[in-house]
Every structure is written in structure tokens, then in C-alpha cells.
Amino acid sequence: MTMRTVSEMVKYYTDLKSRPSGQFMYDEVMWQYQDMAKGGDGGELGFERDGETTCRSINYKDYPDWFFQEVCYEMGWLKRPSHHTLEPYSADPV
Q: Which residue among 15, 17, 66, 85 is the one 20 to 30 A from 33 at the CA level?
């Protein structure tokens, strides 16, 4: 299976959202991606393929968590964490 890029998935799901018939699937994918962004399996799909039963194991084998995080950030499903500048600790030998 060829790995998709974040940009490809964002375009696909943006197009899916614009179709009235795609709303149910869009809502399901949003939940699955949010779950997989946190290291989850995206839930059971209700069928088995090659002994696998979850969204991640069937559709996204070997995709890292960061892939789902980036799609979620781009789609607005999760808020991108803000970056904090750390102050040097006074006891640091710097």
C-alpha cells in the first residue's frame, strides 16, 4: 500500500465534507483520526481482513501518530499546541 501524504488526505476530506452524502463518513473519519492521533486504533470496522479488525490496522498500517495529528490540525479537528519558550533554569551550568 502506498502511503498518502497529509496534503492528499486534507484535500480528500475537505472534498468529502462538501458533499451532503459524505457527512456521515466525514464525522466517522474525524473521530477515527482524532483517536489515531492519540495513538489509538481508530476503532473496530465491523469486519476482518487478514486477521485485522481496526481502522488503523486495515487502512493505515505503519502510519505514525504524527500523520494523524497533522491531518487533524490542518482540518481543524484538533488544536495545534502552542510552542512555549523555556526559560533557562538558574542552576543550569550554561
A: 85
pTM of the model as a whole: 0.83
The count of residues in the chain is: 94
Sole residue written with cell 469486519: 47
Residue 45 three-state SS:
strand
Q: Provide the CA 74 distance to its chain's centre, in angstroms.
A: 10
Please name the residues in contact with 4: beta carbons below 8 A apart, sequence gap of 6 or more. Answer: none
Residue 18 amino acid letter: S
Burial class (CB in 10 A: 0-12, 13-18, 19+), 58: middle
* CB within 8 Å of 66: residues ≥ 6 apart: none
Model pLDDT, residue 82: 85
- H helix intervals, the chain: 6-18, 23-37, 55-59, 65-75
